[in-house]
Design a protein that fits this description.
about 250 residues, Nucleotidyltransferase, domain 5, five-stranded mixed beta sheet, disordered N terminus
Length: about 250
């Protein structure tokens, strides 16, 4: 989940104030892309392509190349990936394909797109788009799986993959990811989500929690004041903030 250091990534010669970022978000059901200016404001409409039925690295990269070709000029790329990433390498992708294990995603994207690239866990990128930099902030994304990221003082704590951590008799993702929603139904899923939020608060003592992902639309209980729902768009808008983090 740790973005590759800026010193080891190719640089664009364009001034920072004019840099255009191609922000990409890979999901279990869709791959989204948008151009952002240096402030993180959209410069294009959001493009979306259905994630390939067999989402191998080759198939997904082909889609990303297609999305990049649809959009005007860009100087650099940020990408959110649903799995563990360290130093530009993907280690897990439970909701994609086993071939993503130990795959050099950042290097391969730089080769194909001929631009400097930074990659991070998708929940981490979404977190970059919403955190305020005040205390301990956590983001959970409720979609095909369950993404997670933790920030302290606005800085990412890398390596968190809470969705696959044991909880009850299975994992968090088994209960409050899409599998849990389909298996237990909306009412039980909401009860399990309440329990999970309480458990993460006790475990991490977060000051503020952000909830993203398509299944937040299914939440039917009142959230505490220090829990905020965030748009899926933040998963793309955080792409510029990813480049600001020197780690």
């Amino acid at each position: 989940m740790t973005p590759k250091s800026a010193s080891s990534t190719p640089r664009s010669s364009a001034p920072v104030v004019s840099l255009v970022t191609l922000a990409i978000d890979i999901g279990g059901s869709g791959i989204k892309a948008m151009l952002l200016d240096a402030r993180g404001k959209p410069l294009s409409e959001r493009e979306r392509v259905v994630t390939p039925a067999v989402p191998t690295p080759r198939a997904v990269l082909r889609v990303i190349e297609e999305l990049g070709s649809r959009l005007p000029r860009f100087d650099r790329v940020s990408l959110g990936f649903p799995g563990v990433i360290k130093r530009g390498m993907t280690y897990t992708a439970a909701n994609l394909h086993p071939l993503w294990a130990n795959f050099p995603l950042q290097r391969e994207l730089e080769r194909r797109l001929r631009r400097p690239v930074r990659v991070a866990n998708d929940a981490a990128v979404q977190g970059y788009g919403v955190v305020k930099g005040q205390g301990v902030e956590m983001i959970l994304t409720l979609g095909t799986g369950m993404g997670s990221a933790l920030f302290t003082g606005g800085r990412l704590c890398p390596g968190l993959e809470l969705g696959h951590h044991p909880w009850k008799k299975k994992t968090y993702e088994d209960y409050i990811g899409r599998r849990g929603l389909d298996r237990y139904g909306k009412k039980r899923w909401n009860a399990l989500l309440r329990e999970a939020l309480d458990q993460t608060q006790k475990l991490f003592n977060w000051d503020h929690l952000y909830l993203g992902g398509g299944n937040t639309k299914k939440i039917d209980f009142q959230l505490p004041k220090n829990v905020t729902l965030v748009s899926n768009k933040e998963g793309i808008l955080g792409g510029v903030a990813l480049w600001r983090d020197p780690s």
